[in-house]
Design brief:
By secondary structure, this protein is α+β, with helices and mostly antiparallel strands. Strands 1-8-7-4-5-6-2-3 form an 8-stranded mixed beta sheet. Helix 4 links the parallel strand 5 and strand 6. The longest helix is centred in the middle third of the chain and has 17 residues.
């Protein structure tokens, strides 16, 4: 049954490709929500197996990226997320990269080592429920989450997160709140 989830997510990602290209061209790195939206409770574990939830990050602007090691666009963007966290991460901003690999932390840790990911904490949802909970039509999906824990923007597909225009937009969002 686990392989079926991967196939379904892959098919949805391919089908969404044309829509994503249109969406990215018209809205930039984030599709704006009409108003901040509540995010369902997300639970996951860190690399040591300790339980966490998205609610722990309240008080910070959060870039929540849901990804998997088998997702090629995810593999391309992860180093840029790592550089973004190294540059902006702190008391006001946090990148939360959440792997939905069913093999758990070991495969994600191997990926982090292979790609020299150093600034991003390792978070894993081995149940893969996060993508479904967030109504993600494919991977990677990235949500911009305000200090109150509400979704204020969404992007489907890979982005060069450390590009100057993206960093500038995130810095503006950090000061706007």
């Amino acid at each position: 049954m686990n392989w079926r989830i991967g196939v379904i997510v892959g098919v949805i990602a391919v089908a969404a490709g044309g829509y994503v290209a249109y969406w990215q061209a018209s809205t930039g790195p984030f599709g704006r929500t009409s108003s901040p939206r509540a995010i369902p409770e997300l639970r996951f574990v860190d690399g040591a197996g300790r339980a966490h939830s998205l609610a722990e990050f309240r008080g910070k602007l959060v870039l929540l990226n849901v990804w998997a090691t088998w997702c090629e666009p995810c593999r391309e963007e992860m180093p840029t997320l790592d550089r973004l966290q190294a540059r902006l991460g702190g008391d006001r901003f946090q990148v939360v990269a959440l792997s939905v690999d069913q093999q758990g932390a070991s495969i994600a840790r191997k990926f982090y080592d292979e790609f020299s990911i150093k600034a991003l904490a390792l978070y894993v949802d081995p149940t893969s429920k996060a993508a479904f909970t967030l109504d993600a039509p494919g991977l990677p999906v990235t949500l911009l989450v305000d200090r109150s824990g509400r979704e204020i923007g969404r992007h489907l597909g890979a982005v060069k997160w450390d590009a100057p225009e993206v960093v500038e937009r995130l810095q503006r969002a950090m000061t706007a709140e």
